[in-house]
Amino acid sequence: MRYTLKQLVLSFIVLLSTQAHAEQVGLSQEKSTKYFPEDIFHCYFEGNTKAPLVISPRLEESVDIIAWAKQNQSKIAKAIQEFGAIVFSGFNLTKDDFFTAFEAVTGLKPAGYKGDAPRKKVGENTYESTAVAKGHAIPLHQEVSIGSRDDMPQYISFFCVIPPKEGTGQTQVGNAAKISEEIARLMPDLWKEMTEKTLTYTARYLPEKSLRAKWIQRVNPSHATIKTLFGTEDRKEVEARCQNEGLTYAWDGDWLVVSRKGVPATITVNGKALFCNQIHLERLNPKLCGGWLPYICAKAFVYPSKRVLQFDVQFDDGTPISVKDASTLLTILEKHQEGRNWKKGDLMVLDNATTLHAKTVHSGERKIQVAMAGSVKSRVLLD
After folding, report:
1. Cβ–Cβ contacts within 10 Å for residue 98, how many?
2. pLDDT tens readout for residues 180-205
3. Any domain includes 95
4. Percent of the chain beyond pLDDT 70?
5. Residue 308 DSSP one-character state
6. Residue 23 — pLDDT band, cuts 50, 70, 90?
7. Domain assignment present for 14
8. Regarding beta strands 85-88 and 53-57, do their DSSP bridges make them parallel or antiparallel, or are they unpaired?
9. Is residue 372, in this structure, part of any structural domain at all?
10. Which pLDDT value is given to residue 334?
11. How far apart are CA 222 and CA 311, in angstroms?
12. How far apart are CA 117 and CA 122, in angstroms?
């Protein structure tokens, strides 16, 4: 067989790329043995991904992962800091093990959720994942990055009760450091504002029984009602909770408008500013909607005015954030997300400061539970 010069060059590039990936995987697997003994565990990345790190037993039922984790929490904590996201797979865990397994792995009991996405509680501080339609994706983000860093959890964990159809519904991850470097390079003016200014996030919650609320929730199930988020529509109870949580609130007719002011757009880890905001999610934009036509329809029929938008965001000094910038941020984030298919009984744990997570569109039934604990504010670098 005869090869053209172009074919030879392309083959050489592919070979170099394959070798580089193999070296990276080998290096990472070698690093992982510091935390997970190779005679007990098999550590690897799936496909061509570099995250998350998957930990499986060498022999089926050869280790009680909950008992092992309780005795090795410091090692696991260091592994999570180094790799950003790890998945325990193949240990025959069930949904009844989730709370105990999370505590065994992190050394922390699951804490209550303090974000603004609608979540159904399924156990003691364990929840169903954010409710979105099958055809909707959730872009990369850090949990509760729209609020106080005291409320932003150090760890977030996902447990697979029912996996979706293979190739869909993945919980993908992204490296905050790499994302930050690309934003600083491609959007230097916005990055400068992010590192120097704070943000105001605004959320609007629906009255449960209004016809408009039912229409909006049919199109966008993630738009929370007042009752979903606060457990009641009693104004005194809602206002008391807002005051206790330091939230600015106002009533616009029977809608509740809640603002969080002074929220940093970055988080400092080991002396370095990392991306940590939800501008790309809170500023309605064509990329978020899946294209210009869905965006125009959303603006025309679901959110026709700023007064009824589900979310909005701007800098605290009043500087607006353009739709173009929000779309560009989302494009950058999408380039950095990667993941693997869910398997029943998988337990994923993320460092919420350094690792973002996302959900891809899914087919079939998908049931993922969520728990979180700790605070990024008290996060320390482990030696």
Report:
1. 24
2. 999 999 999 999 999 999 999 999 99
3. yes
4. 90
5. G
6. very low
7. no
8. parallel
9. yes
10. 95
11. 11
12. 15
User: Do 306 and 312 contact (CB within 8 A), yes or no?
Assistant: yes
Query: Which residues are registered as beta bridge partners of 257?
Result: 204, 250
Contact 131, 262 (CB under 8 A): no
Tens of pLDDT, residues 258-314? 999 999 999 999 999 999 999 999 998 998 888 899 899 999 999 998 888 999 999
Question: What range does the domain containing 87 cover?
Answer: 33-383
Task: Note the pTM of the prediction, 2 decimals.
Answer: 0.85
Nearest partner of 119 among 244, 234, 31, 222, judged by Cα: 222
The span from the CA of 62 to the CA of 199, in Å, is 49
Of residues 349, 262, 257, 265, the one with CA closest to residue 309: 257
Q: Long-range pairs for 221-228 at CB < 8 Å and ≥24 separation?
A: 221/118, 221/131, 221/132, 221/133, 222/117, 222/118, 222/130, 222/131, 222/132, 222/136, 222/310, 223/118, 223/310, 224/116, 224/117, 224/118, 225/118, 226/256, 228/118
Question: Tokens 């999610």 label which residue?
Answer: 281
Q: How far from chain centre, in Å, is Cα 26?
A: 27
Total domains, the chain: 1
Q: What is the pLDDT of residue 381?
A: 59
Q: Which two tokens stand for residue 113?
A: 């959720």
Determine the average pLDDT of the residues in 207-216.
85
- The pLDDT of residue 22 is 43
Return d(Cα 283, Cα 278) in angstroms, integer.
8
Q: Which residues pair with 369 in a beta bridge?
A: 128, 159
- Where do runs of H (alpha helix) occur along the chain? 5-32, 65-71, 73-83, 98-106, 176-186, 188-196, 211-219, 226-230, 235-244, 279-282, 286-289, 292-297, 323-335
Region of 24 (left: φ > 0; alpha: ψ -120 to 50; beta: rest) is alpha
Residue 330 belongs to a domain = yes
Mean pLDDT of 52-76: 91
Q: What are φ and ψ of residue 216, in 5° steps?
A: -65, -45
What's the pLDDT score for residue 10? 44
CATH number at residue 166: 3.60.130.10
Write the burial class of residue 182 (CB in 10 Å: 0-12 exposed, 13-18 middle, 19+ buried).
middle
DSSP 54-99: EEEESSTT---HHHHHHH-HHHHHHHHHHHSEEEE-SS---GGGHH
**235 three-state secondary structure:** helix
